[in-house]
Write a structure and sequence with these properties.
The complex is a heterodimer of chains A (197) and B (440). In chain A, 71% of the residues lie in helices and 0% in strands. Chain A is built from eight helices and no strands. The longest helix of chain A has 30 residues, at 86-115. Chain A has 197 residues and is mainly α. Chain B starts with a helix and ends in a 19-residue tail after the last helix. Chain B has helices spanning 3-8, 20-31, 39-49, 63-84, 218-221, 246-258, 262-275, 280-294, 298-311, 318-328, 335-348, 355-368, 372-383, 389-406, 410-421, and strands spanning 110-111, 116-119, 125-128, 133-135, 144-154, 163-167, 170-174, 177-184, 187-194, 197-201, 206-210, 215-217. Chain B is globular and about 80 Å long. Chain B is 44% helix and 14% strand. Chain B is built from 15 helices and twelve strands. In chain B, strand 4 and strand 5 (144-154) form a beta hairpin. Chain B is α+β, with helices and mostly antiparallel strands and 440 residues long. The chains are: A mainly alpha (197), B alpha+beta (440). Chains A and B meet through helix 2, helix 3, helix 4, helix 5 and helix 8 of A and helix 2 and helix 3 of B.
Chain lengths: 197, 440
């Protein structure tokens, strides 16, 4: 039987020194300790950036969004109660903001696609020989996925992360991640099939 | 059998697929890899978040406030950190040694018949190969290689201050490094000796990142190959011809922007500008707005707003363009120029409804530069214009802080006035930490 597990929350009594260290780090950040804030940033930046990139947000836009996310993290630090790991808490905030941002962009693109009566991306003829064509095709397919599914699929299929890790990053249950991966796959297979016809 | 079960058995999704689309997808997933750690992004983002306690809350307020405050906060943090380290207070390269000539600046090209070495602004050394030509620029304007090969040695720049060199249609973005830039017959090439540089096109899109020993050439990069990233932007419809009627073209440009295609909108506005006529002025202004808001390229937007001001010195959007310039300059690390622009704005638009806010921003910029006298004047000017509650709070605090820094007797009274007016103000805790200010 599969149980719904919320990952990322430390089991009571385990890893207490790490949790205490995190609470101390947060306390110092709230006291405007620049070194503590830098430590928090360095620990979490790359993962937040990858989360944003996995949603197809890149370069300057990704930098801006990461900046927004860390400012939001700071503003909400006071509400961190230490009930979950700090990384889990930050990733949940980051995911929420990144999804919000990605949805706005996706809605605009969806309207353009609708208005232009765009056909689903077609399989490039030279796909077997041309890596750039395959990369472009993959990008076009991923554009069609809702952010939640896209993130789960990219982290699983491209980054090779475990479902438990993805659940921690997304702040959701392991079962939810499996569902998102499954639905993303079904949707991609469907789009790929339409593109062949 | 579910995907989860198949995964548990070591089977991969689409392994053994026979349809070409699915095979191509599986192969593309196998090709793709997570991008490597991005050191430049890490530093860029850090420059914007290093003092989040000074950042303002996002809201409906004028974006100028947030931009300038972030820059002020970042720079104050840098100054504070350096003060703690007992290092030099000035931002940028170390001060010139006694007897060292001032850096070469200027907007005209410098050519060298024989190899020559020059010190440029921000502590950068440029070694020109014979017959190379270089526009040295200044502290605010980057140098440009117009011909031949130039080797740059760039010292470490303050966090968030990017140094770049222009070459043809490209920008070479640097973080403390040594590299050669060559321009020959329109082709640009870059070779890195140490550190990391990034090649960008004019819109700021990253084309390549180079490590020591690596080279890049625009002639090799010229064929239209997709960007080297695992995902690509949305497919855009091919650019439509500009409709003969200008009003129709304007509507098409607006629609392209609203439809999420700013580059197409930019092209349409560009054609309207070229065509001249009554819509050219607003089209030029719109171009800058798109470059700033949609393409996130403040340098390009700044150049376009400048173009607007040159072409329409008394244009109907002149005040808006001036405000936008003040907004964008601190983002480019050009605080001194932003302060000068704020002063110009107050002279040029004495009745503008935003003059109070601009004066407050000018005050912050002057205080950040350590000029408390000038800041005081600007904060007081801010108080005489219409002001939002937050700006009034900031101006009142800034005034008290400047008086305290100058050792003026009015500091305690200014602090008392601040506390009376803003008992739960944005600086209520901070004001008690100023010198000469008694506890409440």
């Amino acid at each position: 039987m599969l149980s719904i597990v919320r990952t990322g929350s430390p089991a009571p009594g385990t890893d207490e020194p790490a949790a205490a260290a995190e609470r101390e780090l947060v306390r110092r950040c709230l006291a405007r300790d620049a070194a503590a804030w830098r430590t928090l940033y360095e620990r979490h930046f790359q993962r937040v950036l990858r989360l944003v990139q996995a949603l197809g947000i890149r370069d300057g836009e990704a930098d801006d969004l990461c900046q927004e996310i860390f400012v939001i993290v700071y503003r909400h630090l006071r509400s961190f109660r230490g009930e979950a790991r700090l990384s889990t808490w930050i990733h949940r905030l980051a995911t929420r903001e990144a999804f919000r941002h990605a949805r706005r962009g996706r809605m605009r693109r969806a309207l353009v696609q609708l208005l232009a009566r765009e056909r689903p991306p077609s399989v490039p003829r030279e796909w077997a020989e041309n890596e750039a064509a395959r990369r472009q095709y993959l990008g076009q397919l991923l554009e069609r996925l809702p952010p939640e599914r896209r993130l789960a699929l990219v982290l699983f299929e491209i980054d090779g992360r475990s479902v438990a890790e993805i659940a921690e990053i997304c702040g959701c249950a392991v079962n939810t991640v499996w569902t998102r991966i499954h639905r993303a796959r079904v949707q991609l297979e469907q789009i790929a099939k339409e593109g062949q016809g | 059998v579910s995907g989860r079960d198949r995964h548990a058995e070591g089977e991969r999704w689409l392994d053994g697929a026979t349809a070409p689309g699915q095979q191509a997808l599986r192969q593309a997933l196998d090709d793709a890899a997570p991008p490597p750690e991005d050191e430049l992004a890490r530093q860029r983002v850090w420059a914007g978040v290093q003092a989040p306690w000074s950042a303002r809350r996002a809201g409906p307020r004028w974006p100028l406030v947030a931009a300038v405050s972030a820059a002020v906060a970042a720079t104050l943090a840098i100054v504070a950190t350096r003060a703690l380290d007992r290092g030099p207070l000035a931002e940028g390269p170390p001060a010139l040694a006694r007897g060292e000539p001032p850096p070469m600046t200027g907007q005209g090209p410098v050519t060298a018949e024989r190899a020559a070495r020059h010190r440029l602004a921000r502590g950068v050394d440029a070694e020109l190969a014979p017959r190379a030509a270089l526009v040295p620029g200044d502290a605010e304007t980057p140098p440009e290689v117009t011909r031949g090969r130039v080797r740059f040695s760039v010292p470490h720049q303050a966090p968030g201050r990017r140094y770049h060199v222009r070459a043809g249609a490209y920008r070479v973005v640097v973080l403390g490094t040594e590299f050669d830039v060559s321009v020959e017959g329109g082709a640009v090439s870059v070779t890195v000796a140490s550190g990391v540089v990034q090649i960008e096109d004019a819109s700021g899109r990253r084309l390549e990142r180079l490590a020591p020993g690596e080279s890049w050439s625009s002639s090799a990069a010229a064929p239209a190959e997709p960007a080297p990233v695992p995902v690509t932007p949305a497919v855009r419809p091919p650019p439509a011809p500009v409709p003969a009627d200008a009003a129709e073209a304007l509507a098409a440009a607006r629609s392209a922007r609203n439809g999420g295609d700013p580059r197409r909108a930019l092209g349409l506005y560009q054609r309207l500008v070229k065509a001249g006529g009554p819509l050219a002025e607003s089209a030029l202004f719109e171009m800058a707005t798109i470059e700033h808001e949609d393409l996130h390229d403040p340098a390009r937007a700044l150049a376009t707003w400048q173009r607007y001001r040159d072409r329409y010195p008394r244009g109907v959007l002149r005040a808006e363009a001036d405000l936008s310039v003040i907004e964008v300059l601190p983002r480019l690390g050009q605080e001194a120029r932003a302060l000068a622009e704020a002063r110009d704005f107050l002279r040029r638009h004495p009745r503008n409804e935003r003059r109070g806010e601009v004066a407050r921003v000018g005050g912050d910029l002057a205080r950040m530069r350590g000029d408390c006298r000038a800041a005081l004047e600007l904060y007081e000017a801010a108080g005489s214009g219409p002001l939002s509650l937050d700006d009034a709070d900031d101006a009142a605090f800034g005034r008290a802080a400047c008086l305290a820094a100058l050792g003026e007797v009015g500091a305690a009274q200014a602090a008392r006035q601040y506390r009376e007016r803003f008992p739960r103000g944005r600086h209520a805790a901070e004001i008690g930490r100023l010198p000469m200010i008694p506890p409440p």
